[in-house]
Amino acid sequence: MGMTQHAEPAVSSPPASGPGKVKDGRTAERPLALRLLARPEVGVFLGAVAVWVFFLIAAPPVRDGSSMANILYQSSTIGIMALPVALLMIGGEFDLSAGVAVITSALTASMFAFQLTLNVWAGIVVALLVSLAIGFLNGWLVVRTGLPSFLITLGTFLILQGVNLAVTKLVTGNVATDDISNMDGFDQA
Q1: Is 73 contained in some domain?
Q2: Is the separation of the CB atoms in 178 and 172 below 8 Å?
Q3: Which residue, of 11, 25, 87, 173, is most buried by count of CB atoms within 10 Å of its CB?
Q4: Segment 34-70, tens digit of pLDDT
């Protein structure tokens, strides 16, 4: 004896979109203001605007154009490093060697230009190549070994710190470089 199954007739449901769309609370569209406030970048922007407005009110010299240029210049030196580090953190990685890599780059540029009596721009090009090599090495080691970026960049941090001290001491006899402010190309760089 076989059992027969009868299919129930399909109940027609209203269309998923359009004028007859059923809203059950779960799929109700939120107002634009709430959707915007839910975005993290809007909160950061509003916080920056609040700080800016506070200082415009509390410190009148901030309203001066030269003061604003100075603030933007100082912010750029932090922001240039903050942006790539933030992108790494968003990607789930971390670079501990970023700070000492900046020092390595500056030492490379100044020592190369001063010791070889070249234009400062030549030192900048060499420093850029050294910085790219450090970044490539960190990335290659993280991908190739599978070790956490924290450990790789901690090792790079310590190596660069030692190399910076040793090379500057060896070349200049001091742990600092000579002044390059009077060299060719310094004002443009």
Answers
A1: no
A2: yes
A3: 87
A4: 888 888 888 888 998 999 899 999 988 888 888 888 8
51 lies in some domain: no
Number of domains in the chain: 1
Token pair for 67: 């003061």
Structure tokens at 92: 């789930």
Torsional sign, CA 31, 32, 37, 38 = positive
Name the residue range of residue 174's domain. Answer: 94-189
- Asked if residues 140 and 132 have their Cβ atoms less than 8 Å apart, the reply is no
Is 105 contained in some domain? yes
Taking the model in full, what pTM does it have? 0.64
Alpha helices in the chain (DSSP H): 32-37, 40-58, 65-90, 98-115, 120-145, 149-172
Residue 184 belongs to a domain: yes
